[in-house]
Amino acid sequence: MTDAAQPEALVSAADGGDPRALARLISLVENGSPQLRSVMKLIAPRTGQARVIGLTGAPGVGKSTVTGAVVRAYRNRGLRVGVLAVDPTSPFTGGALLGDRVRMQDHATDSGVFIRSMASRGHLGGLSWAAPQALRILDAAGFQVVLIETVGVGQAEVEIASLADTTMVIVAPGMGDSVQAAKAGILEIADIFVVNKNDRPSAQEAIRDLRAMLAMARYSDGAWKPPIVPVSAMRGDGIDDLVARLDAHGEWLNASGERDRKRLARARDEISAMAVATLRERIGALPGEARLEELAAQVASGKLDPYSAADELIG
Amino acid sequence: MTDAAQPEALVSAADGGDPRALARLISLVENGSPQLRSVMKLIAPRTGQARVIGLTGAPGVGKSTVTGAVVRAYRNRGLRVGVLAVDPTSPFTGGALLGDRVRMQDHATDSGVFIRSMASRGHLGGLSWAAPQALRILDAAGFQVVLIETVGVGQAEVEIASLADTTMVIVAPGMGDSVQAAKAGILEIADIFVVNKNDRPSAQEAIRDLRAMLAMARYSDGAWKPPIVPVSAMRGDGIDDLVARLDAHGEWLNASGERDRKRLARARDEISAMAVATLRERIGALPGEARLEELAAQVASGKLDPYSAADELIG
After folding, report:
1. What share of chain B has pLDDT > 90, as a percent?
2. pLDDT at B154
3. How many CB pairs under 8 A join A and B?
4. Which residue from A28, A104, A267, B102 lies 20 to 30 Å from B291 (Cα-Cα)?
């Protein structure tokens, strides 16, 4: 009866840093378990402490290596660090992403580090529903820093940025020019640009392109201007500077009141996502799959439009 | 009173191929107009005819150039072609994506081609709600082929694939290796792999990598095995072969019964997305923004968990 462990027992073990209890709690999130409701009630008073840092960038720029280097830097300060690696793509890729985690094996025996991959199960809204809950679990378990790493560029990144206090966008030389990165909408979410693999000859070009693009942006008084930080995460070059920039952004968040504003916005998003998920569940539960099949056949054959079908579905 | 045009008049003008009427109808979708309801009722009987082809791939692989070449090939057959360029990222990037459309200017004066960019307005669910409706409009207006092009890799691509009868995944040499592409979850959605820029020296390497990866996949009897088609869309090389592969996939869809299955699944997704959007609207309308603000403050301070807050919000 391993699945029937009491939420109370799991929460208290996780609070003591038990990695198996943490893993179990996050599996509850992935599976959308009904036990989550009591878990979330229990941990609510302990949340709001962790510093949340998002990492994003196109495949191949070295996100996992940067994550590993940043984890090491915070561990050297004695902070407990949680890592959520979120895969916004199809459920099929869970394995591939996990392969990446191998690079972080040097933290595998460190009880001050907890690393977990999460797939969004291909459901739209899956990520927006699950990631904040996993974050709450790590936050309540006393991880002072939580890194959220996500793959690819697109809508999921924008969501990750809305979860994080500070978002790092990683680029690498030779992975398509930076103007392409701008097109993908990640410029707007970056608090810090990290140019990884700075030992490559074309790194200077990437930095120059980013700089030119940032020069075109307009900032209001007191706004944060994203720095460009060249690193070689593999060699450990530039990581001290990167962490200093993370600290500087943290201070700016506090001084500007932006941290509170972000956290309020995050809570709003979380409640809305939860409300939509609840309503979606009710749709699923209401008229039964068979009715949806009938309506779908009518829509596919042009007998009915999707609005009228949706109205019939939800009554 | 340009906004007060009767849905009937717009639909009948769009059916005659009037690009301004089409643009107006798609703007109704982008703006979530209440008039859409009558539009969708009017056009339902005329839908289900268009062949829907999805194009996706990382930024910089040349999606727009491939789209342009495929449009030209179908135009040469005398077919009317609609293009929806969907940007799943933040609303800020609309302009950047539109810049790309410049490459398709050679179709600008051809009344048998209609090209439209759509942003998803940053709402989660925006794309899954809006793209199928825009597709319905083009379908009902008599475009025999509709190409849906989307930027980036991630969840949005999986959704586009669920909209399309046939999905092409475009890769290009030197844009990160194909194993990285696999990681991004696009392998599973590809019916056809297009290796663009085949005149580059590293194209053979990209083809070899893709081939090796496909060799590891298992296919059941009668399943479609995605071909790898090298092209140079800029020079027009390989486009005839690509269109022949598109035709072959179309025939397979018919023979296998897969087309009907896909269309039924699409209708199901559409109805569900519409039902969720309707319920989401009701949330917005129900307890007012002020109540959500209060609840968010309680969640942010740890006084309340998001489940209980969502319950209070929807009652």
Report:
1. 32
2. 55
3. 279
4. A28
In what helix (H) or strand (E) does residue A87 lie, and over which residues does it extend? strand A81-87
Do A306 and B89 lie within an 8 Å CB cutoff? no
Residue A179 has pLDDT above 70, yes or no: no
pLDDT 10s digits, B233-291: 999 999 999 999 999 999 999 999 999 888 888 888 888 778 777 776 776 655 566 78
Q: Where are the alpha helices (DSSP H) in B54-125?
A: 63-76, 94-101
The Cα–Cα gap between B97 and B89 comes to 10
DSSP H helical segments within chain B, as ranges?
7-15, 19-30, 36-43, 63-76, 94-101, 126-140, 155-163, 178-183, 203-216, 239-256, 258-285, 288-300, 306-314
Mean pLDDT value of segment B122-126 = 45
Taking the alpha carbons at both ends of chain A, their separation in whole angstroms is: 40
Per CATH, is B47-256 categorized as 2.40.400.10? no
Instruction: Report residue B103's pLDDT band, with 50, 70 and 90 as the boundaries.
Output: very low
* Residues from chain A contacting residue B206 (CB–CB below 8 Å): none
What ipTM score was computed for the predicted complex, to two decimals? 0.72
3-state secondary structure of B27: helix
- In angstroms, the CA B258 to CA B131 distance is 21
User: Half-sphere exposure of residue A44, counting CA atoms within 13 Å on the CB side?
Assistant: 21
The span from the CA of A210 to the CA of B157, in Å, is: 26
Least-confidence region, from A85-94, B54-63, B281-290 = A85-94
Look at residue B150 and give its three-state secondary structure: strand
Q: How many angstroms separate the CA atoms of A161 and A146, rounded? A: 13
How close does chain B come to A233, measured CA to CA in Å?
A: 18
Name the one residue in this structure whose structure tokens are 């592409």.
B181
Residue with tokens 């009948």: B12
Tell me the CATH architecture of domain A46-256: 3-Layer(aba) Sandwich (3.40)
Question: What CA–CA distances, in Å, run from A112 to A140, A242, B193?
Answer: 14, 21, 44
- For residues B51 and B250, is the Cβ–Cβ distance under 8 A? yes
**Residue-level pLDDT at A79:** 95
Write down the domain spans for chain A: 46-256, 273-314
